[in-house]
């Protein structure tokens, strides 16, 4: 006999007595429970306001029963504000939304400081945590039928909370808006300080009566207090079995002998069974931990020379008050069957001035050899522990206090391509400098967040949230094991909605696991031998935007990345930069030419909007020499090139014509040769000037780490490129600045400068200011601009010189420090009256 929901849809329900029914669950297993035919006294429909009436019937949800979709319901958007929600206090859904807002205001106190009528909420839903991009199919939306009296649908809403200006109060209504009228953060015009908007995605259990006409009888928040270790174990085993050495290095007989031999001297691990710190004699399989050190000095227990012997004694860690995160990680390793754990705080002698630097420089080996890394991707540094581990439940409203789900409106599910970006990328852990390379260098990452656990390897990803929905037939996490058994069925899998017809399909039949697609953003967080210069630039941008407790750690916390890339590229790294590529653009002893000397985040976007080939397609125009602290002055092993060809300056200088350019919207051969011949700095002129100034070399010998090279130098004025239409920009607004030659003609731009910085340096009547600029390399304009220039036959504007604004030090040779970078039109450089000099860039 059909399921009650099938009968409800077809109008065939007709019962007078309570009878047992057999239903087919996900076309895999039969379950039996009684269906109520009479009006059960506990089936009391909830009071709902007019706006929420649609939720009273179960057909608002798109769920599957016996392979049939009940209804394809489009996600709705409604507008309201806190005052209106309070006025609908008798409405159960309004009360639930209001409660979620109050929970959010506990985290964002600024929300409580404004009048209720000026806090607007856009409500979008329903959404389900069940969408999968595997083969473009969606997972089945099966209701929770574990209670014979109720049909429970688990869903979440997206609540966008924002500030509503006074002038918009009358226009604001609770009517559904068209799709194109999406929520926008309003501009404050009355001088008030605008609270920051926020988005929350509370999760609800919608309980419908199990009768002829199901009615909404209850709304409850649903959270999962603990994660199931067996689910995590299955993820790791699946990766081991299917991906093999693609994702993790093997220990024992199959180990990579080179990497194992490279483990630093004094390498230690925690023995989670003996509860001690040991220095293993042979290679061992171990797990690494990435976390944030606690701000509480009393919690900063660490390995030191004075306690090494103590911690090596079996059972010593049981007698020590170790931080909660470390204690929970030890327990988790034991539960997962892993004996050894590496934790920097307890495995590196922190006050050993010889051992500690060696361990820091070997971070690439330590993290890449770990079988996986436990990452405490949390938003607090209190060090209490790992949320969801046994005996440490998550916050009762974790879904509200955590990063919101990113829903796919069309599919009414979550966007799996951004699950890790959303849950991990916005965490406090991901904003710390040291954690960058720990994430990048780890081949398998087990993220523990406030609300769920996620997994990522080289080939796939997994999210605990997909296992929540699939285990709703029983509240116990152990139900996931039952679902895992179903994956071996010959019929359709509830995880993928596909038949078991191939090994590739079977490989993904693990609860919560899905294949990572190439277009996912997280692909950039995995250091591979095929890493490109584009990847490197992305990583530098990310890393340089993070926070370090000590600015002097800027290169130490990046050392592991440099070591790995150095091996992959067969190149030395100098102050965070690969020697084999052209020199590109904190203090201390770091030379100004390195990005590590900058006090602000690095931005390579000005060079190439899409990180395409333009990023590395430059014209080499300089022979760089490096004042090596050990070897003395030496020529850098830079891969010289001419835009699309890897070719040396010497080879170019021996040619009458430069290599022709390919692709559309590029200047022809005759035009290219004419423009470069007329430029004071070109390959022919560079080749004629190999000798460095002896005075400059003498000065450089006293400045280890400096770059020495011959190039052209010009003095230019700096001005605002434009003013905004809204009046004078704020002092911290960032724009490109305009560069003028001595005749006042605009010749180029300086990239990403604060308005106030330009304002105090621009020339005004009676006070002319000139600044020194040096040429470094050449390039073509961006493709989209070249397309427009070609239409107007402006071929001479397509070539640019990469230039650097420098601050010249008061000495006879040209000794300078980097200030900023920009470009000058190639055809205008001769009008800037440049002169050849030997520059010492320190």
From TrEMBL:
Domain of life: Eukaryota
UniProt name for this protein: HET-domain-containing protein
Originating species: Hypoxylon rubiginosum
């Amino acid at each position: 006999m059909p399921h009650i929901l099938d009968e409800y849809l077809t109008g065939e329900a007709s019962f007078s007595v309570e009878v047992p029914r057999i239903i087919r669950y996900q076309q895999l297993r039969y379950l039996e429970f009684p269906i109520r035919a009479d009006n059960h006294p506990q089936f009391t429909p909830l009071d709902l306001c007019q706006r929420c009436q649609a939720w009273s019937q179960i057909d608002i949800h798109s769920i599957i029963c016996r392979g049939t979709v009940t209804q394809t319901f489009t996600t709705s958007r409604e507008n309201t504000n806190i005052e209106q929600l309070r006025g609908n206090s008798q409405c159960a859904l309004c009360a639930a939304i209001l409660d979620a807002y109050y929970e959010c205001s506990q985290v964002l106190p600024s929300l409580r400081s404004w009048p209720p009528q000026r806090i607007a909420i856009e409500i979008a839903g329903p959404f389900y945590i069940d969408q999968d991009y595997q083969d473009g199919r969606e997972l089945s939306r099966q209701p929770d039928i574990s209670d014979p009296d109720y049909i429970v649908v688990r869903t979440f809403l997206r609540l966008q909370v924002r500030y509503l200006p006074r002038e918009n109060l009358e226009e604001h209504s609770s009517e559904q808006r068209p799709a194109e009228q999406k929520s926008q953060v309003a501009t404050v015009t009355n001088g008030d300080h605008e609270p920051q908007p926020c988005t929350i995605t509370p999760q609800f259990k919608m309980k419908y009566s199990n009768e002829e006409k199901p009615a909404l009888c209850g709304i409850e928040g649903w959270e999962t207090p603990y994660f199931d270790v067996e689910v995590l174990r299955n993820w790791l085993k699946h990766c081991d079995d299917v991906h093999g050495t693609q994702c993790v290095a093997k220990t024992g007989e199959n180990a990579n002998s080179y990497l194992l031999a490279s483990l630093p001297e004094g390498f230690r691990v925690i023995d989670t069974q003996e509860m001690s710190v040991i220095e293993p004699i042979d290679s061992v399989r171990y797990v690494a931990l990435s976390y944030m050190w606690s701000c509480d000095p009393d919690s900063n227990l660490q390995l030191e020379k004075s306690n090494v012997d103590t911690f090596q004694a079996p059972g010593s860690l049981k007698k020590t008050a170790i931080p909660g995160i470390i204690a929970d990680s030890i327990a988790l390793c034991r539960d997962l069957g892993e004996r050894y754990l590496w934790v920097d705080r307890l495995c590196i002698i922190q006050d050993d001035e010889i051992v500690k630097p060696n361990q820091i420089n070997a971070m690439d080996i330590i993290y890449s050899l770990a079988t996986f890394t436990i990452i405490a991707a949390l938003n607090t540094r209190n060090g209490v522990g790992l949320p969801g581990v046994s005996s440490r439940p998550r916050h009762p409203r974790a879904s509200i206090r955590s990063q919101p789900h990113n829903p796919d409106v069309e599919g009414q599910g979550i966007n799996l391509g951004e699950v890790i970006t959303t849950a991990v990328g916005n965490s406090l852990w991901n904003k710390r400098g040291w954690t960058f390379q720990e994430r990048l260098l780890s081949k398998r990452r087990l993220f523990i967040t406030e609300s769920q656990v996620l997994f990522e390897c080289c080939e796939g990803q997994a999210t605990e949230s997909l296992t929540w929905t699939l285990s709703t037939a029983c509240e116990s996490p152990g139900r996931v094991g039952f679902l895992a058994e179903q994956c071996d069925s010959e019929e359709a899998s509830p995880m993928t909605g596909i038949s078991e017809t191939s090994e590739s399909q079977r490989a993904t039949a693990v609860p919560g696991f899905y294949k990572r697609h190439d277009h996912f953003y997280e692909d950039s967080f995995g250091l591979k031998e095929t890493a490109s210069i584009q990847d490197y630039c992305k990583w530098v941008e990310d890393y340089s935007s993070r926070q370090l407790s000590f600015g002097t750690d800027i290169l130490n916390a990046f050392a592991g990345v440099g070591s790995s890339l150095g091996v992959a590229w067969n190149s030395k790294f100098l102050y965070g930069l690969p020697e084999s590529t052209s020199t590109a653009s904190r203090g201390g002893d770091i030379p100004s030419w390195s990005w590590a000397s900058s006090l602000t985040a690095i931005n390579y976007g000005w060079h190439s909007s899409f990180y395409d080939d333009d990023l590395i397609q430059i014209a080499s125009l300089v022979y760089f020499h490096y004042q090596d602290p050990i070897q003395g002055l030496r020529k850098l092993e830079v891969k010289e090139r001419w835009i699309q060809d890897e070719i040396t300056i010497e080879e170019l200088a021996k040619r009458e014509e430069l290599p022709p350019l390919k692709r559309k919207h590029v200047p022809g051969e005759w035009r290219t040769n004419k423009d470069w011949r007329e430029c004071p700095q070109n390959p022919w002129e560079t080749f004629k000037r190999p000798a460095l100034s002896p005075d400059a070399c003498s000065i450089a010998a006293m400045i280890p780490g400096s770059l020495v090279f011959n190039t052209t130098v010009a003095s230019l004025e700096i001005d605002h490129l434009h003013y905004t239409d809204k009046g004078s920009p704020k002092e911290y607004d960032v724009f490109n600045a305009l560069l003028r030659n001595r005749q006042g003609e605009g010749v180029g731009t300086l990239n990403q400068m604060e308005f106030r910085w330009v304002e105090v340096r621009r020339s005004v009547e009676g006070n002319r200011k000139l600044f020194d600029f040096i040429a470094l390399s050449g390039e073509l304009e961006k493709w989209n601009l070249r397309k427009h220039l070609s239409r107007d036959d402006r071929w001479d504007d397509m070539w640019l010189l990469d230039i650097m604004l420098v601050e010249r030090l008061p000495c006879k040779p040209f000794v300078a420090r980097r200030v900023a970078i920009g470009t000058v039109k190639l055809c205008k450089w001769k009008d800037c009256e440049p002169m050849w000099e030997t520059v010492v860039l320190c």
